[in-house]
């Protein structure tokens, strides 16, 4: 299954105009577009419009797109060079701008390569507990992925983390391709680390979302290695590394988010 089918992203007669119906399956439990799905749709549209693969993309989230509605996606290409293209997406519902994405796409023949960060040592997915799910999420984006806690405390006791680090195993839906857009969806689980860092049931609404693509490879599970750097003035800042099961660094991401604290009494242990 390609990521366009997973998202429901639709083409038009114009290669630079796409649209995305906002349905529950790509929405949060609050019934608005999951930020990672918005970035993924923009990435898929840019890659298809330019014929080049993503190097990096950064999204600024300006407003919420509620379900049901239609997000129109306009691809702009200010510069198309020999090896790289600079592109931009404006996503809007009617006249209201929802997100702006700036990106670079391209490939170069180059003789040298390397990977320097080390994949954290965690238990395999089958040995990790399921992540709790919030009520009202059964037909939302969370329900389309199996999520397990690879590093972190399933129970929040109010004690902050000593290092701000946590990790999730995310199982991709059967047959979903591993590509830049798919990784953009996974990277938006970075705010899950806010609660782990604070020792409370907390998360965040993304203000921005940057993904840098290294090497997507086939994998059933993606390890989301989250590092929260700081929480101050009600905002959190952190990054995420996305690993294949066999230790390939596929992408990195970073975000700032508005911190939200939740009522733990609403949690469910159901997640499959």
Secondary structure layout plus pairing:
Layout (H helix, E strand, L loop, with lengths): L2 H5 L2 E2 L5 E6 L12 H16 L3 E8 L7 E12 L3 E10 L2 E11 L39 E6 L13 E7 L8 H8 L4 H7 L3 E5 L1 E6 L7 E12 L2 E9 L5 E13 L11
Antiparallel strand pairs: 1-2, 2-4, 3-6, 3-10, 4-5, 5-6, 7-8, 8-11, 9-13, 10-13, 11-12, 12-13
Helix pairs in contact: 2-3
Give an overview of the whole structure.
With 272 residues, the protein is mainly beta. It has 2 domains: 3-106, Porin (Beta Barrel), CATH 2.40.160; 127-266, Acyl-CoA thioesterase, double hotdog domain (Porin), CATH 2.40.160.210. The protein is built from 4 helices and 13 strands. Strands 1, 2, 3, 4, 5, 6, 7, 8, 9, 10, 11, 12 and 13 form a 13-stranded antiparallel beta sheet that branches. Strand 11 (221-232) and strand 12 (235-243) form a beta hairpin. The longest helix has 16 residues, at 35-50. It starts with a helix and ends in an 11-residue tail after the last strand. The mean pLDDT is 93.
How would you summarize this macromolecular structure in one to three sentences?
Helices cover 13% and strands 39% of the residues. By secondary structure, the protein is mainly beta.
What is the CA-atom radius of gyration, in angstroms? 18 Å
Q: State the separation between the terminal residues, measured CA to CA.
A: 20 Å
Q: Give the number of helices.
A: 4
Q: Under the CATH scheme, which class of the largest domain?
A: Mainly Beta
CATH homology superfamily name of the largest domain: Acyl-CoA thioesterase, double hotdog domain
What assembly state would you assign to the polypeptide chains in this entry?
A: single chain
Average pLDDT, to the nearest integer? 93
CATH architecture of the largest domain: Beta Barrel
Most strands sheet: 13 strands, antiparallel
Helix content: 10-25%
In one word, what is the shape?
globular
Give the low-pLDDT segments: none
The SSE order reads: HEEHEEEEEEHHEEEEE
How many domain regions? 2
